[in-house]
Specification:
The chain is of the alpha+beta class. It is built from 9 helices and 43 strands. It is globular and about 85 Å long.
Length: about 675
């Protein structure tokens, strides 16, 4: 019954509209949800005369790659989307645009049979002006040809690590602006960029750059700025005079905020907003952007420094998919994901391995979670993807420039240059690093290596982190400590981070004696918990580690994998692919990271027991815990573990069902399981 209710809720959520990015909300807009869809190569699908008798009716967000999750292998090729839209007469004297927040992996867009442009890259937004093609006396045909086939000129060049889903899986919006506007076409960004120039205790000096576009005959305009604090109180306002003799220009302004409140991670994620109004005669274009004021640095011994104070970065990595919907998730799904990340107590988030929805970055801003944003330059390379890699990095940075949560731009993940430092991937990394600093002078770059401390790809980016899977793919779990200490001693000036760590855990596997790793069929949940207990102890006791990220927050699909008893699935998540079950390891980290009271009986899904004397393991951040068996108190303990693990040893079970209960905080906190002793 509960499962049916959950499914109903998810279906209801999926039918809700996607929210537009913030800078579209003050512009008249149409959210294009209803589309016709057909998979396969078709001729003339962009024509009005094409019949849709055998087309499927779908709603955006949509993917045509669910077979990647359900089977081994999936369709890679063309698909078409078509929709008819009436543009309201209120837009007649306006400029009209169409914006796609994400299409996997390539898109060619047609309006009323005319091809208006192509976008290559499955994770960033793109925007086209369609003013001259829109008709107000009839329905307008929007047709999109989508393709998710491999392309060696596009990153990522293969799908060895994650699925390359096809489809229009994020919002599509038609919107209008005055003829003189704050440009929405500067790489589909807001057109408004706020940069901290100087900061002291009493004053923050900031620069604001606004991209203005004008196709009217007007010669002058005003840019009116209002800056408000998190409570909505106006703190600064000013006006800039704009000369419109140039059709496209950037207006630079500086302003100061007195006694600024800093964006301070989870402690106080204070957000300011800037409202930019471009006023020309009777027309007004209005864009609102959030921003935060903060400084940070990374020290080889002290780790991450936020606003001049050490701030531990520990958290998770995340892909953008759910079992039920693939990547075609709504803002409500993304909000649920962030609620779980917030619940576990993470201070940092790596949004791997590509640009995620703007919603995720906004949620990170609001929750105060420091975020690693990256492009999909992953694993393999062709030597021909340079142009597209630079384009995707440019889009990532400009579309997400104002998010204070983002602290690093990730340039690559596990890209290997075995032969020499002159391989194309090394040269490209240097060019990407230079480009990132040209586009954004306020942030640093990073990368995730699976090689040693020295490699041809290593130490080009400002920061370096390593994907380390000791005890799973190689070595022993304890080797993480040895590697960290030896590396820190040998390279005392090197800033060391752990970009990925973790092992598989299947909640349906509870027999610890059957562990098969890393490619076998049995991944016991208890082994995953034990690994994280040991590894977190290692990481937490080494403050020089500037950041550590669990791989992964959620189980996710990798078509072609057949590991851990469920095909096409990576089992390393702390939460199951369907978001229905938080694994034991989730509660281990919640007890260690969160300020919320935690009392949780581990190994709870090991319900059938064969030994009459057992150990009861509890994850808790409470000082004292009482254990009852079948209604009788049998033990009580004080918490002495620095990783929040408590064990009650030699607990006797009766034959048949046993009710195991733990209490804390004067019995205000309680957790309970039922285990059966089978003789």
């Amino acid at each position: 019954m509960l499962r049916n209710i959950s499914l109903f809720i998810l279906i209801l959520i999926q039918n809700l509209c996607l929210a537009q990015v913030s800078f579209l909300q003050n512009r008249e807009n149409i959210n294009l949800e209803e589309w016709s869809f057909r998979k396969g190569r078709l001729n003339y699908a962009e024509k009005h005369a094409t019949l849709e008798n055998d087309w499927e009716k779908v709603k955006i967000p949509h993917t045509y790659s669910m077979d990647a999750i359900e089977d081994i292998g999936y369709y890679k090729g063309d698909a078409w989307y078509r929709t008819l839209v009436e543009v309201p007469a209120s837009m007649t004297q306006e400029r009209i645009f169409i914006r796609f927040e994400g299409v996997g992996q390539e898109a060619q867009v047609y309006v009323n049979e005319k091809r208006i442009g192509k976008h290559v890259g499955g994770y960033s937004a793109f925007c086209f002006e369609i003013t001259d093609l829109v008709k107000f006396d009839q329905k307008n045909l929007i047709a999109v040809k989508v393709n998710n086939s491999p392309n060696f000129k596009r990153i990522p060049v293969d799908d060895n690590l994650f699925n390359h889903y096809g489809g229009i899986y994020r919002a599509v919006t038609i919107f209008s602006t005055p003829k003189c506007n704050i440009s929405p076409q500067y790489k589909a960004s807001s057109g408004v960029f706020v940069e901290l120039k100087a900061l002291n205790k009493n004053t923050a000096k900031l620069e604001i750059r606004t991209h203005v576009s004008n196709i009217s005959d007007k010669k002058k305009a005003q840019l009116k700025y209002i800056i408000k604090d998190a409570g909505g109180k106006k703190v600064v306002s000013f006006i800039e005079q704009v000369d419109l003799t140039e059709p496209n220009q950037v207006v630079n302004s500086t302003f100061e905020i007195k006694n600024p409140v800093l964006w301070n991670g989870r402690k106080n994620p204070h957000l300011y907003t800037v409202e930019a109004k471009l006023v020309s005669d009777k027309s007004t274009d209005n864009v609102i952007q959030s921003f935060g004021i903060r400084t940070y640095s990374v020290d080889a011994n002290k780790g991450f420094i936020l606003n001049n104070k050490p701030y531990r970065l520990y958290g998770v990595c995340k892909h953008q998919e759910w079992k039920q919907f693939g990547p075609a998730v709504s803002d409500e799904h993304l909000t649920r994901d962030m609620e779980l990340i917030d619940e576990v107590g993470a201070t940092a988030l790596r949004l791997s391995h590509y640009q995620h929805s703007d919603t995720m970055y906004e949620l990170s801003d609001k929750k105060g979670i420091l975020t690693w944003a990256e492009i999909p330059f992953v694993h393999d390379y062709s030597g021909r993807e340079g142009k597209n890699a630079k384009e995707q990095l440019t889009e990532l940075i400009l579309q997400n420039y104002n998010h204070p949560s983002i602290f690093v731009w990730g340039l690559w993940n596990e890209v290997r240059a075995y032969k020499s430092p002159d391989e194309p991937c090394v040269i490209l990394t240097k060019e990407l690093n230079e480009l990132a600093h040209k586009l954004d002078k306020t942030r640093i770059t990073t990368s995730a290596s699976d090689r040693g401390m020295e490699s041809n790809m290593g130490n080009i980016t400002d920061l370096q982190a390593w994907n380390k899977y000791f005890g799973w793919y190689y070595g022993k779990y304890e080797d993480m400590a040895t590697w960290l200490d030896n590396s820190h001693q040998k390279y005392p000036d090197r800033r060391i981070g752990v970009s990925e760590y973790g092992i598989g855990g299947n909640i349906y596997h509870q027999d610890i004696s059957k562990l098969e790793k890393p490619n076998g069929n049995f991944f016991p949940e208890q082994e995953q918990s034990y690994y994280h207990e040991l590894t977190w102890k290692i990481l937490k006791d080494r403050p020089y580690v500037w950041g550590s990220f669990i791989w992964n927050m959620f189980d996710f699909s990798v078509a072609g994998w057949n590991r851990g008893g469920i095909s096409s699935l990576n089992h390393k998540g702390l939460v199951t692919f369907d978001r229905e079950t938080k694994k034991d390891a989730f509660y281990f980290y919640k007890a260690n990271w969160s300020d919320e009271p935690v009392l949780y009986i581990a190994e709870r899904r090991h319900i059938n027991r064969t030994s009459s004397h057992i150990s009861v393991k509890v994850y808790t951040n409470m000082d004292e815990v009482e254990l009852n068996v079948n209604g009788k108190k049998v033990a009580a303990q004080n918490l002495t573990s620095d990783i929040k693990v408590m064990r009650f040893e030699n607990i006797e079970l009766s034959e048949g069902k046993n009710i195991i209960t733990v209490f804390s905080n004067g019995k205000k906190l309680k957790d309970e399981v039922v285990w059966t002793l089978q003789k």
